[in-house]
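Supplementary Methods S3. Complex input for the fe (ii) ion-bound model.
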Amino acid sequence: MEKKQNSRVRGQRLLKSMIQRLEQQGRLGQEKNYIQHGSTTVFAHSVRVASLSLKLAKRLRLQVDNKALLRGALLHDYFLYDWHEKDRSHRLHGLFHAKTALRNAKKDFHLNKLEENIIARHMFPLNPIFPRYKEAWIVCLADKYCAAEEIIRPFLSGRRLRNLLKYLHV
Ligand SMILES: [Fe+2]
Ligand SMILES: [Fe+2]
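Predicted complex, serialized as structure tokens:
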């Protein structure tokens, strides 16, 4: 139990230091200005995906490169624009933003092959090329889960939640 807690604390510390480094060395902080889903910023979404990716790897007892897993997850949506704004360059955001995120991330950081693959392939299956590494699969799955939860959450609060519960007779 204590061992489990220690590893969780270590994981959270690593995540925190990664965030600080990426904010200082690059433009991760800019993601706080852009909304991803619902009321969640791209920054908050990326941190959630990174945190969940780490938990998933631990739960599945997979030996992963934690540093690459977290860096890739934190940078997976590093496209750095507001995709809700009508602009020609934001067209087909779903299809092209992984490519844009990778291009931006390569400008600001030295990425290894694993980190590149995590960013480039996180939109599988919409971008129909399989992730190559287990770390890229984990981030791809964590991203889907977080996105779904962030989209659904506003509909499950306040009056709507009460109505849903009433409807379900809970
Ligand atoms: Fe994305
Ligand atoms: Fe994402």
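The first strand starts at residue 35 and ends at 37. The CA atoms of residues 14 and 155 lie 33 Å apart.
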